[in-house]
Amino acid sequence: MKIRDAIKAASNGVYISIEVTPNSKQSCVYGYNEWRKSIAVRVKAPPKGGKANAEIVELFSKIFRKKVEIVKGHTSSQKVIFVHSASPQEVESLLVKSLEK
Predict the structure, then answer these.
(1) Rounded Cα gap, residues 6 and 83, in angstroms
(2) Do residues 24 and 94 touch, judged by C-beta distance below 8 A?
(3) Residue 100 pLDDT grade (very low, low, confident, very high; cuts 50, 70, 90)
(4) Which of 4, 62, 51 is nearest to 29 (CA)?
(5) How confident is the model at residue 75 (pLDDT cuts 50, 70, 90)?
(6) For residue range 2-30, what is the model confidence (pLDDT) as tens digits?
(7) In this structure, what are the phi and psi dihedrals at residue 19, rounded to the nearest 5 degrees?
(8) CATH of the domain spanning 3-100, picked from 3.90.1150.10, 3.30.1200.10, 3.40.50.1240, 1.10.10.10
(9) What are the boundaries of each domain within the chain?
(10) pTM, whole model, 2 decimals?
């Protein structure tokens, strides 16, 4: 699995490409889409009124224990999130751990 391909380093944090499936039974990081080079994520919330986006931010904030924001794709299932003050290695290892659950 090449999770590293979904992660891009920046000077003050890390960008992560994600693919979101709303209206799921549980909220979790569940895989890696090799074709799109993105992390597959499920959220319980519907994609209405920013509810799914809020749940994405909450989910990743818990995983990384850092400030997280959506920087691209607010109305799309393909999104880019930014994790503040994180290193690519730290993000990759925490994503791998969350996939193992």
Answers:
(1) 13
(2) no
(3) confident
(4) 62
(5) very high
(6) 899 999 999 999 999 999 999 999 999 99
(7) -125, 120
(8) 3.30.1200.10
(9) 3-100
(10) 0.94
With tokens 């569940």, the residue in question is 30
Q: Cα(60)–Cα(37) distance, rounded to whole angstroms?
A: 18
Copy the structure tokens of residue 10: 């920046």
Tokens representing 36 are 């799109």
- Residue for token digits 């074709």? 35
String of DSSP letters for 6-49: GEEEETTEEEEEEEEE-S-SS-EEEEEETTTTEEEEE-SS-SST
Q: What is the rounded distance in angstroms from the CA atom of residue 19 to the CA atom of residue 10? A: 20
Structure tokens that stand for 40 in this block: 């597959």
Using CA atoms of 56, 58, 63, 67 in order, give the dihedral in degrees to the nearest 10.
100
Residue with the two structure tokens 């380093």: 9
Tell the residue number behind the tokens 């925490």, with chain if given.
Answer: 94
